[in-house]
Amino acid sequence: MVFHATLQGERYRFDDLRTLLARASPLRSGDELIGVAAADPVERVAAREALANLPLRAFLSESVIPFEQCDVTRLVVERHDAAAFAPIAHMTVGQWRDWLLGHEADAGALAAIARGLTPEMVSAVSKLMRNQDLIAVARKVRVVTAFRNTQGLKGRLGSRLQPNHPTDDARGIAAALLDGLLLGAGDAVLGINPATDSIETGMVLVRMLDEVRQRYDIPTQSCVLTHITNTLAMIARGAPVDLVFQSIAGTQRANESFGVSLALLDEAHQAARSLRRGSVGENVMYFETGQGAAISADAHFGVDQQTLEVRAYAVAREYAPLLVNTVVGFIGPEYLYDGKQIIRAGLEDHFCGKLMGLPMGCDVCYTNHAEADQDDSDDLMMLLAAAGVNFLIAVPGGDDVMLNYQSLSYHDILTLRSVYDAAPAPEFEHWLERMALLDGRRRVNANAPLSLPGFMDPRD
């Protein structure tokens, strides 16, 4: 299909859906890098005008990546729920935007249509929204998941405790782990990014995390964020694996560059569920995404990076994950140049993931060569908390010494919980109360212990 819009007497032409979506996207360096961005702000407005008038049904007849060339496209087409789509099938993208912002689109209505949405529909409507619109709609959506505690409940803000170490030293990791637990972090997951791909090291780390969890009876889940094939190998060797992690992208070719396929995800999902380690739920997968991943793998097919990101959510949705987070500024300024682009992308990702029924979190982060600073991270974390984000990632001091990027700190999580009167997962909150670590206002208890009994015992 060819799309047109006329502004001030000038007629703009967009040759296909892929081009229309790219030209309508807010300015970002990744789209400029691959030459799909609008030439100027006027063309961007024209594209949004044409997009607003496009019937939602059009997304069911044209794919941005051909069906024959991409298993993600095939997954989207084959899993589309026509009955769930029916309530909005008569709308244009612009009409759907207005409906989403209205009172009729409450939590129940949004949950009911989630399986009827394709990623391209969701990407399209996000391009017509201001930041406040993204927040207003996303905060209406609750996606609740569970493993050893319950994530995504209203009035709750989860956190991933990320105790990375540049040499995978177990005692260094334990020190960062203790620091986070004492400050009330870690209900979403105790998650380590290992510095190497060694399966032996992964076995040591996953066993250490499980020992700590069991010793202190912590109602949370752990994860060593190694490649999915390593996790399968660890499961085969009897490792106490709670969650299976994998970075995913929005095209088959990009996922292949990560060494992953839908068949491999199927295998890992079944293997993790067979362990039956959850106590309150069976959501066993943890996915990370990020705008720019498919571009960096030269697997973008000329599609704008935000639409590609939302296609990754279609992959994640297939496996009913416990957690999904976008690492919004991690890939670098080549894809999100500055704080403004990072903030916009974080709000888009959260909005789009929630609309598609995912338990969205975010790593509010940036690399040191980006035009961003901690004030930008503060702004984004506050906006995401207002939008009802399921969880955020936190590292000691906000500085990850292994991955060499800036994220949030454990103290930032305390600030957000205090400002928004938000609590951690209920099971984890009860544990914090039992251990006298937080007071009733989600602040550090002035009389809290400086350690946990036996933690980092020299004999260990």
UniProtKB/TrEMBL annotation:
Pfam families: EutB. It is found in: Bacterial microcompartment. It comes from Gluconacetobacter takamatsuzukensis. Keywords: Bacterial microcompartment, Cobalamin, Cobalt, Lyase. Its main location: other. NCBIfam families: PRK15067.1. One of its GO terms (cellular component) is ethanolamine degradation polyhedral organelle. This is Ethanolamine ammonia-lyase large subunit. Belongs to the EutB family. GO terms for biological process: amino acid metabolic process; ethanolamine catabolic process. Substrate binds at R160, L161, Q162, N193, E288, D363.
